[in-house]
Amino acid sequence: MILPACNENGLDSGGLPQVETLPVEIANSSTAVLRGSTKGGTANMLCRGVCFSSAVIFSFKDSPCVSVAPGEGEFEVKTYELIPLHQYNMKAFAVMKDGTIVYGDERTFSTTDFSLPTVEIKETTEIFATEATFNATLIDEGDYSVTARGFVYTADKNAVLEIGETGVNSVLAPSEGADFSVLVGGLALNTQYRVKAYAMTENGPGYSAEITFSTPDIKPVEFEEITETENTYLSLIVKSSITDTHGATILSSGFCWSSTNKLPSVRTDSFKAIEGEMSISFEDATPGKVYYVRAYAETKENGTNYSETKRFRVKTYDCDGGMIKIVPDNPVYIGWLGDYDQPSMAARYSQAHDGVYQINMSVGRTATPNPSEATLQPFCIAKYEVTNRWFIEFLNIYGSSVVKDGTWKGQALLFDAYTDIHPEGDKWSVDEAYLDYPVVGVTWYGALEFCSFFGGYLPSEAQWEVAARGNVYSNDPSAPMYMYSGSNTVTEVAVCSIGTSHTHVEKVGTLKPNQLGIYDMSGNAEEMTSSWWGNYQTPYKENPMPSNKQIVIRGGRAQRGVANTFQVNTRASLAITAPQSWSNYVGFRFACDPFDED
Predict the structure, then answer these.
(1) 230 φ/ψ angles, rounded to the nearest 5 degrees
(2) Is the dihedral of CA 482, 483, 486, 492 positive or negative?
């Protein structure tokens, strides 16, 4: 029901108005423009409009009504979410300031049937031994927005050719433009297929007419499995060969590839014809880049033949295989979530146990007094802090002690006085005993450049906290939310000086991990994030860079002995422009977007 506040318009006609219900001229499956007219009584009129109902007896007080400001003459209002193929009763009304309601005569109107999208399927093209290209055009979206489009196909003569039916395959198409096409693989030789195009809406799909096509009875060229012969951080070389032509005349052969299309072709993606031994080096290889690769052969008799797709990922940092994928249970709440031992502070989650709420400015720590709601996409985060071993590997590949390009060009990657890493000529090294310790004394610029070089990023503060809490964001008491990352006992999970005397960070992964298998998030090296320092906004969003260029750092640092500084809800700031006296206790962790393993 839409009933905005009614306002006086200053007209001076008194008494009760004459109200007339006018015929509906525009109505479709879910909306209608309702019309009426009032004459006189405008000085005492509060508002006017039209009410409507499926019931025979109805009034302003018990049926949906749409109103407009008072006035004289014809008016129209629009209503939504009507039922298709349905008859409604309606009458215009005017509401007076004393509560009197004046009605016009009753009329009826009917909605139409809703219209599904109109799709036209075109002739199937590029029909080869095991592949073909389906083509279609979206003629009209109908009454509801199209949410997806594609094709259904089958070799079963008796199957119902619709999405989800037994024996029917479906494939999505790109969403841009009226025309859409899809290259489909995995077809059988000498087989007739039935195909329809479709466009999906919230009320179901609209289908095209059905067409058929047949694959040829010619065996495709066969290939040796594609294998890599070199895979370093900046290079990828793969090879294959033709093992059986089945009598076809080869016109050319080589590779086609894409970083997004899992079924690359010479028609839509990058390709290179190769004479002689089939081997290719990818010139744009960068750490972590993914390639979907197929060998191909152009034949005189059977068009283009392809090998199976092989997925390759250029060598990159992956925390020695320890990247943890996190799918956040949105929405999540970042900050102080409450404590069942502190009933005066309402808990956001029944199992939240953030510990005794404290603000300890003497160590630059603040626990946020109120949570902020955040919505995060899935991401991966390393189960260990970045170690000296890996940062040295980066430096020796990168070949520079300063940022080489971009916004922070020329900024130092390390604070020499605070790190265990030292240069040796044009290389960098560290004492062997410290190889698996978290890298410290690294600048924020160095952390950013490391993550960017390897195809990832520094985690944001929200991502860091979701990982530290073990992605436990529900009201299930069986999934406890710990005070520290993985425990309510700080010394179980945090390298710290509580009860001991730590003068250095320790080897990563020596204590208990949290629920996700992530180590040292409460304490070892304190960890930089990509987020600029500032109070939380609601809902959570990243703050702009402050004038003092301070970032948010999270987790405890090894030499601290104050327990609350290791809780998952505490945070601190770090200026990126100059080292702090405790920079030899600050490191970072790598994060990246998930990537398909298929």
Answers:
(1) -155, 135
(2) negative
